Amino acid sequence: MLLFQNEMDYKDQIDTEERRSILKLMRENEQNKQFISKAKKALEDIQKKPIFRKCVIRIKFPNNFMLQGEFGCKEKIVELYKFVEKVFITLEYCS
């Protein structure tokens, strides 16, 4: 049991307890802090982004002909050109 001789002793005791609790919180925060390098932060940002596995490309021609192709995310633009060329060659043979 604490007995205080005057009001100042009481205020000093409260201030001391507050200081102790603040210092304790500050120590806990310091222990929980982790410094992250820029590279690690960039990696975490990339990992949070959605991953696309395919891409759908539509080409609308002036005569309202719509050509649609599905491509993998690692395919090159050359594959798109080959696809369009193949469709046109097929259309030429059919007409």
Layout: helices, strands, pairs:
Layout lengths: L6 H26 L5 H11 L5 E7 L5 E7 L4 H18 L1
Antiparallel strand pairs: 1-2
Task: Describe what this molecule looks like in 3D.
The protein has 95 residues and is an alpha+beta fold. It has a domain at 51-94. The protein contains three helices and two strands, in the order ααββα. The chain has helices spanning 7-32, 38-48, 77-94; strands at residues 54-60, 66-72. The protein has a two-stranded antiparallel ribbon with strand order 1-2. The longest helix is centred in the N-terminal third of the chain and has 26 residues, at 7-32. The radius of gyration is 34 Å and the shape is rod-shaped.
Question: The biggest beta sheet, please?
Answer: 2 strands, antiparallel
**Can you give the helix content as a percent range?**
55-70%
What spatial form do the alpha-carbon principal axes imply? rod-shaped
* First-residue to last-residue Cα separation: 102 Å
Mean pLDDT equals 80
Strand content: 5-15%
Return the structural class. Answer: alpha+beta
Q: Order of strands across the biggest sheet?
A: 1-2
Q: Uncertain runs with pLDDT below 50, 5 residues or more?
A: none
- Radius of gyration over C-alpha positions, nearest whole angstrom: 34 Å
Strand tally: 2
- The H/E string reads HHEEH
Number of DSSP helical runs? 3
